[in-house]
Every structure is written in C-alpha cells, then in structure tokens.
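Subject: sequence -> structure tokens, single chain

Hey, anyone have a minute? Need the predicted structure for the following. Not urgent.
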Amino acid sequence: MLYSMTGFGRAVVETPDKKITVEVKSLNSKQMDLTVRLPQQLRDAESEIRNLASRLLQRGKVDVVAISESTVAEATACLNLPALKAYKAQIVEMASELQIPLPADWYSVLFRFPDSMHSDIAPDAPDEDLKAVVEASSQAINALIAHRRSEGLRLEEFFTKRIHNIQDLLAKIPAFEEERITRIRSRIEENLAQLNKAEYDHGRFEQEMIFYIEKLDISEEKQRLAQHLSYFLETMAEADGGQGKKLGFISQEMGREINTLGSKSNQADMQRLVVMMKDELEQIKEQVLNVM
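Reply:
Had a minute. Here:
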C-alpha cells in the first residue's frame, strides 16, 4: 500500500485548566525535514515529540505546531487587597511627609505596583501539560497518517491506470515489428541496386544484414520493460509503506527501456507508441515524488 508524503492532522487535548491544540502538516521532501514549534512552557516535550514524529512519519517536510490556551483565565485574576492597602498607606504617609498632593487617580497609581493582582488558582502541574501536548501530538500525527493513506489510495489508482496503459501500448508493438524488418531490408537492397549493379558477395551481404537486424532487435527491451511494469505493481502492493524511492528507481529503469525502444524502432507507428509510453511514464514520475 502507498502513503503520500502530503497530509494534515489536528488534535485537541484538554486538562482541567488548559486546552492544547496540535496541528501537523507534511509536504514532499527527499529526507525527514522536521520543525517543531511549542509554547515556551512546553519546550521540555520537544524531544519526545520529535522522536515520535520521526519514527512514525519517516519522510517529508513536517511542521508540528502546538498552541496552549488557558480555560480558566477569567477566574484566575483577582485584586490583592492587602497589598493595595499597604501601598496606599505608604503613599499617604509619603505625601504627608513630603508635603505633596495625593494622586488624583488612585487606580492608575496602585495598579502599577507589583503584586497588585494575584491568582487564587494553584500553578499548573508541568507534567500534566507535557503529557497532554505529547498525547495531542500523537493523535495529530495519526490523523496525518490517515490522511496520507487516503491520498495514497488515489495514487495507487493513478499509477495502476498509467502502468496498464503502458502495458497495452507495449502489447501493440509486435504488430509492427515484422513490417519494420521487411522495410529495412527492402530499403538496403534498393540502395544497393542503385550502385550501377555493383558486384558484392551475397553471402557476406546476408551476414551483415542479419547482424544489422539483430542490432535493431527489441525483444530484450520489451521483456525488461514488461518485467519493470510488473515489478512496479508488486512494489505498490507491499504492506510496509515507504516505497517512494524504490518506485522512483523502477520508473527510471522503465524510462531507459522505453528510450531504447524509440531509438531502435525505425518505424513511424512504433515511434508513436513509444511517445505515448513516454507521456504515461512522465506522469508516473511526477507523482512518484509524492510517495513516501
């Protein structure tokens, strides 16, 4: 089965006072190119998230982004009245001793002091938040893998159709082979006939003709191309995934055989079939770059 390198996954995990959202997206890349962006207070989980993403995603340009939101922000802030009373008393005492006026706006003055507000909620447990961001990352990565598999199914359909098209074109080539050899032999004999009836060794001529026609024989190329096409389909069906590089190598070998068929064809209909094969193969090569 195939997995695309392109995908997206998102997950949300909530703690008693936090909502942690993780989004993971991946694009094509020859190697694993991983970026992890976490809030400062969650940086201790980065190593574990990196290991998890690298192990499960294998290849691609991967971005992991986590956002932490407080779900009790409104309840945490309250006035620190004892501190405010102490600050005001000191200001009144200072104004009296220095004989300066009291502030016209007490609120703006008092709220500038540290500890003018405090939280009645106990600090977050770091371990709880770290576990939550790792869990959200795991869920988002699995969602991305499911997306990759969905895209992989479409790639399988695409490749299967293209491979079958090349197989069908290859099956049409033998119909033109005998005619091709006959035309080559006739053309050479006609050229010899125009040499003012020059004398030549007919036995040697037959030997050279056989040698020349053997050089134009495409039996091996057809056989190897058929094998590569079958191997491509077999490789797609492998269960482990990660066949992208192998499929790329197979498509290169297919290209070599198709190019050789074109160079040896010497026949218009065969050349048209070869051009159509090349078109199908180019589409395969473009999409192989998306395979993990």
